Amino acid sequence: MSRASKLTLLGTSAFALGTVALVHWQQQAEKEAMHAGVIRDIEQQRIKRERQLDFEMQRELENEYKKLQTVRDVTDQMDHPVPTK
């Protein structure tokens, strides 16, 4: 084998190995990014469930308080202020 053919073989082999390594690294990075997205989605769903439960609990408390207390609309009274003495 001539020196030029050996250098060509070495160069193309190095290029091929570099390409394989780069593709492998890129696939790993994409896999980690997708996994991070799944983790983020699960966390967002958990937060949404907690907020929904808090909302439902507040609604139940509001209904319970409305049963115990008389609630009246004060906006009508604001149109006709009561004179003070």
From TrEMBL:
What is any one GO biological process for this UniProt entry?
A: mitochondrial respiratory chain complex IV assembly
What InterPro entries does its record include? Answer: Pet117
Q: Which Pfam families match?
A: PET117
* Superkingdom, taxonomy of origin: Eukaryota
Q: Provide the leader sequence positions.
A: 1-21
Q: Where in the cell is it found?
A: Mitochondrion
What are the UniProt keywords, alphabetically?
Answer: Mitochondrion, Signal, Transit peptide
Cellular component terms per the entry's GO annotation: mitochondrion
The answer, when asked if Mitochondrion is one of the entry's keywords, is yes
Family to which the UniProt record says this protein belongs: Belongs to the PET117 family.
Q: Which PANTHER family match?
A: PROTEIN PET117 HOMOLOG, MITOCHONDRIAL
Name of protein: Cytochrome c oxidase assembly protein
Which organism is this entry from?
A: Neurospora tetrasperma (strain FGSC 2508 / ATCC MYA-4615 / P0657)
